Every structure is written in structure tokens, then in C-alpha cells.
């Protein structure tokens, strides 16, 4: 199933082709000056932001946030103490130091253990429906918060290193803006002169307006909105937020030189500039075989990048207004299979979240001794989404109207995860 709803005739490559030459129009690379930081702070001060670290494939949370030492399901790693209530995997000692800022919800119990369906469900709060495409976290935040931020010229929903969740019936205006971990715009094409690009964009704008005036359905109007946003973006000084290479070398060294580290640094820059939702994609968690060998490689990368992001946000005074959440589409089986792997498991698993007014340093919920069942109140995707929306100041009474005319309540009427609300 395609998680990104596109209006007829609207393709992402079509949209991104409008950005051809954007870097040329943006002029030379700027330093992130004190003036720009002050402007960004003004944009940021009246709203909260969220950075979602999306662990596509389904991470084995039983080996990360809810370990079972001594159980036959426990795996080969040991838990270590942290600065919060949780014990976590020994391969994440740096993150252990930052757990005073983060909480673990160990009683997630969701109903979709298929990658596509589970990803859709966890990002929207709704199970897939052939008749309706539901909006994801980022699109909901862009719609509810991004439209209220005066003078924000860069997109309110940015996806780093992946496609991100789709806008569903909210339309392409709220689709994720995709960039690489270096801040480069995907599918960006270069090679045209400024004056050529300006002429082309003027002509395209005239054509777009003609189609809108001819009332040929919603696609031309959606396309025109995207074009207007593109033109605004191309000449905005706020584009500097994407230029990770303008960050001081010491800061870049602190984060590290791999894709996740760069993505986390870029996410901090974007939130600092006023972007209300950033999705960072860190996939490769479909560990049906050699689970523990893979974790020996992946967990140290996660440990360094995520701990640095949380520490940096805290030091800059940004963590109170920035939610950091870490999850995939489900967990993995407590049972270890014959290939030293773990399979898909949605019945009892964990997510990590903190900042932005959420509880800090807590463990919420519990599973039994071998991790096969939730033994406290179970929480769903709807509940998590409702909790995040509430923490960001989005009313849970919000009701959207889908394109088939049906009312759709935000977060699918999920209940709050009380222990996660500070």
C-alpha cells in the first residue's frame, strides 16, 4: 500500500522538479549567524516540536528497553542501570546517561505485525482502509501547528533519509519534504541559470492558475499550493537550516560522521529553526536472523547519535519544547528462532519518548517474566498518538473531514498514556 496519497497527476518527482536550481537561487552558503538564530528562536518560541526516530523493520525492544535477563527469551546481552528508572542494553552506555530525560513505555500492544500495515498503523493511529488514506503524525502536526507559525518559510514536516509518513486526505500541502542526512533535497536537479529558472517558474505559475480557474478538480489547486510554497522556499534565508556543513566542526565531530548522526544533527537544526515535525529514518531492523550480531553493530550507532541529540537539546534549553520519540512498526518475538533471529511481534513491546513536557526517567507499564504478554494496562498506537498530540498542544477534540465526507477524529480517539504525561 502506498502510504503517501497523491492527487491525480501529482508525482513527487514532478513536485521536486520545481526545486531545480534552488541551491543556486539561495546564493552562497551562509553561516548560521546570531541574527538567523534569533529569528529562528522567535519562530520556535510559541510551539512545540517533535523529532521521531523511525526504526523501520521493527526493532527487538526486548533486547533494548525491556530486557529479560535469565529468561530463555532474554538473548545474550546484559542490562545496565541508567539515570532513570529503566535498565537498558549494555551496548548503549551513553544513552544510559541521558535516560533521566526519557521514558520507556513497555506495555505497547498493537494489532498489526505486517511491515506495511504496522507502519501505517503506528504512524496514523488507524489500520489501513482501502477507501481512506489517513494522515501521519507529521502531516497532522503540519496541519495543526505548521499553518499557525508566522513567517515559517521552510516546510513544517521534514523527513530525513526516507519517504516519511503520508499526508492522506489532508493533501499534498502537508506531505513530508524529503532530504538526505546531509540536508540535500532529494531528486534536486541542477544546471539551470537563475534567470532561466525564474522565467520557467513564472510560466508554470500562470499555467497552474489557469488550471485552478478551470475547476478541474482538487489536483490543480493542490499543485498550485505546493508551487507557491516551493517559490517561497527557494528564496528563503531559512534554507540555511538544511546546511549541516555550516555547523561548527566541533559539533559535527561530537555527533559523528555516519548517516544517523548527521540526520540527528540536521533534525536539531530544523527544530531550532522552527520546524514542528522531523522524521529521522534509521531502518534495517527486520532481524529474522543474526539478531544479536546485528545489534552489536546497530546499537552503538544508535547509542551515540541519540544520546548526543538528547544531550545537545538539553544543553541548548530546547528539550522542554521538543519531544523525542523512538519506535518502529512493532517489536520482535520473545522466542529466538533457529536462525538466531526474532520474528514480527506486536503483542508486547516498547517505545522510547521524552522531552516536550512528557515524563522523564520513567518506566510505564510492564510485561511478564519472558516478555510474551503485557501485564499492566496495554497501550495502542492510537493512545500513543493522542498522548503526543496532547503534549504538543493539539486538541484531541479535533475532527477532520476525509475526502469521502466522513468525520475522522484525531488520533482515532485514543486515550492518554497517563504515566507519560508529566
TrEMBL record:
Under the heading SUPFAM superfamilies, the entry gives: Alkaline phosphatase-like
Signal peptide positions (record): 1-31
Stored PROSITE patterns: TAT (PS51318)
Which Pfam families would you find in this protein's record? DUF1501
Q: Which UniProt keywords apply?
A: Signal
- Presence of the UniProt keyword Signal in the record: yes
Please indicate which superkingdom the organism of origin belongs to: Bacteria
Q: What is this protein called?
A: DUF1501 domain-containing protein
Q: What is the lineage of its organism?
A: Bacteria, Pseudomonadati, Planctomycetota, Planctomycetia, Pirellulales
